[in-house]
Amino acid sequence: MTRTLTALMLVTALLGGGTVFAQPSKKTAELITRLGTAPVNEQLTIIRELLKTQDVESAAAIAAQLKSPAAPVRLSAAKALAKLSSDAMRAEAAKTVLPLLTSEDRLARASALDAAGSLKLKDAVLILLDILKNEKDPLRSRAASALGQIGDPAAIKPLLQAMSSPGDWQLQAAAAAALGELQYKPAAPVIIDLYKNANLAAKITLARALGTLKSTEAVSALGAGAADSDLRVKLTAIAALKEIGSPDAGVFLVPALGDAEPSIRAAAADALAKCSAENQLPDLEKYAGTEKDEAVKAAFGRAITALSGGKKKEPAPQAGQ
Length: 321
Prior knowledge:
Elements: H1 2-15, H2 26-35, H3 40-53, H4 56-64, H5 71-81, H6 87-100, H7 106-118, H8 125-133, H9 140-150, H10 156-163, H11 169-181, H12 188-197, H13 200-213, H14 219-225, H15 231-244, H16 250-253, H17 262-274, H18 281-288, H19 294-307
């Protein structure tokens, strides 16, 4: 009887032009049932297992966890939705995500904003723009990030306006990052000015935005960042200079070759190679000759080879050798 009923349902759907999805497996059904009652740590495992099933019902169950009272579960669900492998699964998840964007539950709405971006939900753009324009909405920065991920050009003007919001570094940085993802290069001068005066967290995000835009105008400002006292600011500035790839970055990267932190020295060497900063090859060889850390030595060696046109050169010997 069950088989006959299922067959009739499939025929009806086909004749009606509807979409037919495979029935969820027994394993999927069991996972979904456990998800509602399991402890938080087990829920995180179940979400990962549901993601592997490729069942449409799994997408719906994962999306429903955006309403979970447990922050780790909401975060795990939002990340899992970014990895959905089929249009059918994404469409099913969207049925839950879109209504949550206007929910009175702030935590669920925040998670839904993250999910809307990772799912690249075009249908969410108008709602996201309304959130972004509402100066009283505490989730404007999340809306900005989602708009950047979705990539709709309609967001450019509102994002530029949000980037000019005085005193809200989180929003300004999120808007700048979104404009970077949209590859809106005219935003670079404003982002550079913000970068020069930003707080620590915003500075890191703004540097990444400038790197994404490959803004050669930003080399000098990022060069100052590469000499900052904070390790994270230095690393992101060097990474952005590497992404931009301008030989003009060379003079700003050389001092970092002598930094006390090995990760900074290695990053600077890699950036010099990516920037084709051949004029700084003698400086690189000098620092390579006194380097003690094996991992950094290897980075120096790769950079020297790259800047020497593929011809490997031995590091200069230390004095007295």
